[in-house]
Write a structure and sequence with these properties.
The chain has 114 residues and is mostly beta strands. The chain has two domains: 48 residues, no CATH class; 65 residues, no CATH class. It contains two helices and six strands; from the N terminus they run ββαβαβββ. Strands 1-2-3 form a three-stranded mixed β-sheet, covered by helices on one side. A hairpin with a 4-residue loop joins β4 and β5. The chain is globular and about 45 Å long. It starts with 6 loop residues before the first strand and ends with a strand. 6% of the residues are buried. The model has no long low-confidence stretch (mean pLDDT 76).
Amino acid sequence: MKATTGFDLLHGEEGRGPGLITLRAHGAHYDRDVVATGRRCGARFSVIARMDKAATRAISGIPEDSWVPIKYRHAIFDEDEHRWVSGAQVAEITSSAFTLRRESEHTTARLIWL
């Protein structure tokens, strides 16, 4: 189901497998209630997090040897640098979100930074 609200709820083959539900949301939906609803429904989820102080702290704590180079299938033009980019580095760590809320509402998941 494609939504016009900034998130997609995919199921079955579209969710990448029979019986799977996948929730994808952009940063405007980086919200405890959206994530909690996805978890209650048994969905896998991918939410683009806002770059706030907690995200900056988590990213700055990633060890240098955790970053892995990746190549894009197609180069992307970087308007700011006026050049084509065909690769980047990615790192994955475990991180907790919504930690200013009561402990039962904290959400621990993989943080994948590109």
